[in-house]
Design goal:
This protein is mostly helical. It contains 5 helices and 4 strands.
Length: 204
């Protein structure tokens, strides 16, 4: 038994010495303490890892997204202003018609003709408003498709150098609920996208 105990003790001492030598355990104030983990600044995502980008941040800070959003918003405002102008004119025409009817300022035949004209004007306005709403939706869809294509194309080229196993797109906390912050490459992606976009604009 004594022989076994001595051998066990020697193995334990050797293992402890090796642990200290390789930084597995550090001695501080006479107590054993775990070596601190690498901070986010000291660690970066490596090739072969799964990383992710925050899409909401990219859409807010990507210069191309802001430029395209500004153009679309201007178009939407102009369309909405024209819809409002036509709508108010139609409301005024209807109000005038009803006022004249109430005061008996039109014959029945004139009132019938004018009523039919107003009904046609109402139908035309509804069709116009629906068409313009569809145009607004189409503008927004095209804008998002253009941004998605630009981001995807840039990420494909970027990952040829970085060699990540996968790049996830996180939006509103899905699909990445929680993760090591060093796997978030959003800052690098935004910087790269803006650099490329500025260079492209300067060439034009």
């Amino acid at each position: 038994m004594k022989k076994i105990d001595i051998i066990t003790l020697i193995i334990s001492v050797i293992a402890l010495a090796a642990a200290v030598s390789f930084g597995i355990i550090s001695i501080k104030n006479g107590k054993a303490a775990e070596t601190p983990k690498a901070t986010a600044e000291e660690r970066e995502a490596h090739a072969g890892e799964i990383v992710y980008v925050e899409l909401d941040r990219i859409l807010q800070e990507y210069d191309m997204a802001n430029d395209k959003r500004s153009v679309v918003e201007t178009k939407v405002q102009n369309i909405q202003a024209e819809i409002n102008r036509r709508g108010k004119k139609l409301e005024k025409d209807i109000a005038d018609y009803q006022d004249k009817m109430n005061k008996g300022l039109m014959t029945r035949s004139v009132a019938e003709v004018n009523g039919q004209k107003l009904q046609k004007a109402q139908e035309d306005f509804n069709a116009y408003a629906q068409q313009k709403q569809a145009e607004i939706q189409e503008e927004q869809i095209v804008m998002m498709n253009q941004l998605a294509d630009a981001i995807k194309t840039w990420l494909d080229k970027y990952n040829e150098d970085m060699g990540y196993a996968m790049i996830l797109t996180n939006q509103g906390g899905a699909p990445v609920i929680t993760a090591d912050s060093t796997l978030d490459i959003t800052d690098a992606v935004i910087a790269g996208l803006n650099e490329e976009y500025i260079a492209t604009k300067s060439q034009k």
